[in-house]
Histidine kinase
Amino acid sequence: MKKLTILFSLIFSALIFSQSAKEIIDQNLELSGGITNWKLLNSILLQGKVSLGINDIYPIKIYQQRPNLTKTVITMGKKDTAIEGFDGDKGYAMNYATNKIQVYENYKPESFDNDFIDYENKGFTAEFQGKEKIGENVCYKVELTKNVNKTIYYFDVKTSMLLKEIKKDESLSYSDYRKVGSFLMPFRIESSSPKKDGDYVMLVNKIETNRQFPDNTFKFK
């Protein structure tokens, strides 16, 4: 009987954590724009500056469009240079060893939608892992898992906004949330990695949503 009681307790606890994780994610989607608006979002253009080092600061534009089209452009010496993208067929990125754009055969584009939207239908499981402090903010800690891939997300307890996500080889911090139409979006994004070779801080000054891009916007040239 004692073993059965322990088993039921474990099952009950797992159900609570699963439900809590779903509620946290649903709350974030609702307060950051609403699930309907997120699903109707078809394109986005971010403009700002990216800091790659103490003296390496460049204007940057990031174009994204459903289902997975993307292009990142930085301005160096008054010249726009695409440093990474996916045009629906080819994935490419700057090879800094040769200082040339290189096509990558095994490039895996990210979905336009974040993983939170319909995460269960995408094969993810969510687990609530309690509360943890990120800086001065108390956050809900949620882990999303799909196969062997795991990502940990930290949501501010007070606002439900995403403050940090930790992937296998990169950590992303989000802050300075501002209203963009129906959405709340971060205007400061900071990336760090164990090797410290791709760290950056991006300060966004303008975000446009559902903009109609020219047909050749994402084409690899």
Summary: The chain has two helices and 13 strands. Residues 2-31 form the longest helix (30 residues). The CA atoms of residues 25 and 81 lie 36 Å apart.
